[in-house]
Amino acid sequence: MNPGVLRAELRLLRREPGIIFWVLLFPTLLLAILGSIPSFRHSSHDLGDLRPIDAYVPIAVLIGLITSGVQGMPQSLTGYRERGILRRMSTTPVRPAALLTAQMLVYGGAALVSALLALTVGRLAFDVTLPRQPFGYAVALLLSVIVALALGAVISALSRTTKIAGAIGSAVFFPMMFCAGVWLPVQAMPHTLAEIVGYTPFGAAAQALDQAAAGHWPGWSHLGVLAAWAVLLTRVASRWFRWE
């Protein structure tokens, strides 16, 4: 890892107000808006006697991950390729692989900061209990970040221009948001639909985070789905990614 490249990527990220808002601030802002609705602060039988706001904290965590991996990193990497930056870097001592590593650290770090912010605001503003199984929560969260970044790398590999990256990212973004439970929490989905969603990366992530938040170790089936997607997407990205 090249520290200079990492510092440069951090500076560039700070100059992107759109990324800062949608990755770092929007998930927590959405959580605050939902928490201000009185009915979201009362327990619901459909959610296993949880309050809707309790169910939406893991969802807010996943929104940041999905936005960072699917919308943020692909646009940045594809822009570098489109402008010939990667080709020029390949002729310098700084290898393109250093840039890819820095991108993953920057966008992965942004997703984790977003997750911590959502957890903190949920706890302080709406008395949402912090994850009762913190280690299991951390494992599920880390796997989710890896999957989000691997998915972003696949989108970058398939996109020749930033416009294509944006189009593919948007096509992937909304189904992943549905699977994460943005419009309907997984706990409230019909059983068959919940089982199907559980085989998607962020559907499995939502269920794993819910279980850890409730104090249980995340189901090995959900962690296995996340690990399988991480391996599959990483292999696809490695096979198809080109620097030029």
TrEMBL record:
<dbReference type="GO" id="GO:0046677">
    <property type="term" value="P:response to antibiotic"/>
</dbReference>
<keyword id="KW-0046">Antibiotic resistance</keyword>
<keyword id="KW-1003">Cell membrane</keyword>
<feature type="transmembrane region" description="Helical">
    <location>
        <begin position="134"/>
        <end position="157"/>
    </location>
</feature>
<dbReference type="InterPro" id="IPR047817">
    <property type="entry name" value="ABC2_TM_bact-type"/>
</dbReference>
<feature type="transmembrane region" description="Helical">
    <location>
        <begin position="20"/>
        <end position="40"/>
    </location>
</feature>
<keyword id="KW-0812">Transmembrane</keyword>
<feature type="transmembrane region" description="Helical">
    <location>
        <begin position="164"/>
        <end position="184"/>
    </location>
</feature>
<dbReference type="InterPro" id="IPR000412">
    <property type="entry name" value="ABC_2_transport"/>
</dbReference>
<protein>
    <recommendedName>
        <fullName>Transport permease protein</fullName>
    </recommendedName>
</protein>
<dbReference type="InterPro" id="IPR052902">
    <property type="entry name" value="ABC-2_transporter"/>
</dbReference>
<keyword id="KW-0813">Transport</keyword>
<feature type="transmembrane region" description="Helical">
    <location>
        <begin position="219"/>
        <end position="238"/>
    </location>
</feature>
<feature type="transmembrane region" description="Helical">
    <location>
        <begin position="98"/>
        <end position="122"/>
    </location>
</feature>
<dbReference type="GO" id="GO:0043190">
    <property type="term" value="C:ATP-binding cassette (ABC) transporter complex"/>
</dbReference>
<dbReference type="InterPro" id="IPR013525">
    <property type="entry name" value="ABC2_TM"/>
</dbReference>
<dbReference type="GO" id="GO:0140359">
    <property type="term" value="F:ABC-type transporter activity"/>
</dbReference>
<keyword id="KW-1133">Transmembrane helix</keyword>
<feature type="transmembrane region" description="Helical">
    <location>
        <begin position="55"/>
        <end position="77"/>
    </location>
</feature>
<feature type="domain" description="ABC transmembrane type-2">
    <location>
        <begin position="18"/>
        <end position="244"/>
    </location>
</feature>
<keyword id="KW-0472">Membrane</keyword>
<comment type="similarity">
    <text>Belongs to the ABC-2 integral membrane protein family.</text>
</comment>
<dbReference type="Pfam" id="PF01061">
    <property type="entry name" value="ABC2_membrane"/>
</dbReference>
